[in-house]
Amino acid sequence: MFFFPNKKTPILFQGITSTMGRYQTEKALHYGTNVVAGTGAEALGKLNGIPLYKTVAQAVRAKRPKVSVIFSTPQKALSDVLEAVKAKIPLIICTTEHVPMHDALKMKWAAERAKVTLLGPSSAGILNVNQAIAGTMPTPLFKAGNIALIGRSSSLMFEAVSQLNSYNLGISQCVSLGADHLIGTTFIPILQALNADKSTKAILVVGQVHGLLEEELAAFYAKNHPKKLFVYIPGRALARSDKAPLLGMKSVLFSDVIENKKQLLTRAKAIWIDTPDKIGKTVFDTLKGKKK
Amino acid sequence: MELHEYYVKEIFKKVGLPVLPGGVAYTPHEACGVAKKIGQGPFWIKPQILLGYSPNSKPNALLDRKLAESESQVFEISDALFGKKIKGFPSNVPATITRVYVEQAIPKKSLCRFVFRVDFNQQTYTLTLVSDRGEKTYYLKNLKLESSCKKEILKIMRIHDSKIAKMLWDIVRKAFQLFTSYGAVAVELNPIVQNDKTLVVVDGRLVFDPDSLFRFPEIVKCQETKLGHEREALAKKNAFRYTKMNGNIACLTNGIGLGWATIDMIHQKEGQVACLLDVGTEPSANAITKAMKLALAEPNVDGILVNIFGGLTSCKIIAEGLLAASPEISTGIPVVVRMVGLDADQGALLLSHSISPFLVMDKMMDAVSAVVKQTKGDQ
Asked: Which residues does chain A have within 8 Å of residue B205's beta carbon, measured at their own beta carbons?
């Protein structure tokens, strides 16, 4: 089941000795995150006071982490995720970008079979504002508030945060699913967790033209909508893919795909945001009760 | 980046897929030699040029296979082909035919065609089978090719000859093996032809996943840039992505989502984008410089919009990258820079001290309006 790590949640960092791992560890500790263990190449002794282990199994035995954040290379990402899955860590976050597609599928299916949650690959992780960071988000950007943000592309998510900041709207939770075609967790488990999250009043989703995640989201939201949902999806102005379609596949216009997602979501009573510069304003106006 | 047909056929042969005898030739004499080795005619002669795909263009007649009845005809036809120029897509850079593939020709009566691919919607492997009895897609749950699939395929195709059935299933199995062992995005066998009492894979496509190629250095060595895709290849070498479009504003952003959002806004202001350069979430100064130079070298560009959100990378580093490319900014090309996030003030300060005319703005809409206005004024 998906959950938001807080100050007390014990977290494991896999690939802690890499450049990215070291940098993110310092950032996480500074934010007050409870990093209890690390694994990685030549991991011996301690790093910033965090005990290091050779394998995930050893780290789990010693420290019982509930979350693992993986900072590894595309070459090692699959084996690292499978190691965490095997150790039954309930929430695994893979931040690695450029993971081979077949590897991403293997991760996804392994996590599903073991009934653990996999976020990513290419996820920027989870930020529970003023509680814990389990990912790579730039923490100084985020001010505490009651809007939750779920997104695919991370730089666009940060853009949305900075727009909300300019309207004095803060963030409660920020979750990045990853911008790749093949990813573990979709919007729904996170929406379920947000519905139960008391610090969240409204939800902002930054979607993607590829895949059926927004269609699923619309079907779910039509039945469960205790909180306001805002959606923006980029790519309307793009034409279509310039790759030759494979046998049995049709080449579709991105604007048609997005129009379809818009129809489904607005029918489910979500609030559609047409242009990226209006993200902050639309959320602000709607929450203030003004008309658009 | 793609592979020439003769490489693909080589790989097919290696995994045991039945292909027609053939070989690559660089001169008409070599072409004759290949034909001699094959033995009996007729032969197909196929120019080996990697063309970009256009949804609107008709297949280039020049690239169609030519049929030669005899060895002497192989010489004549290939002699006429060598040196011929072909226009690329999307850019019109011409290329010359330097290689042909000579292959035994058989009547192209298709038994069926099929493709294994990674399905992004269902998030699994799929097998799509197309024959004159219709089209059928199987989702391979558990990422395995179950033998239950075999029964269904044979039932749909109504194949009763047990030898042919065995051969077809063998081809399906080997194609699946090829698909998984290379971590390919797709393996398409199109068509499979019944020739006497055997089955032959006449043509096929192998689409590699660029992210899995670190495992296959031998494939990377054989890859060549598709005609008209030289800029994409250059971008890839320097760890950013280039997408060609049809307008006059070059867009440099970090992260594909932010890039697409920027394009949406330019269109909303009735501007047209020439190309998108996505330097990724964590760009280096060098990648920014290289991307900026590519934008400046792009024909038909009247203005450049840089839209960067400094999440992991400091805007100071981005400004340094932009400054390194500034000597190549010719007069009259406005460069609008919008940088926010980490160290945005320091980045803006650096750019404001430069002699090059960077127009720095904080708001996305202001930056977009500025670049659209300036590029429209130029026309």
From this structure: 246
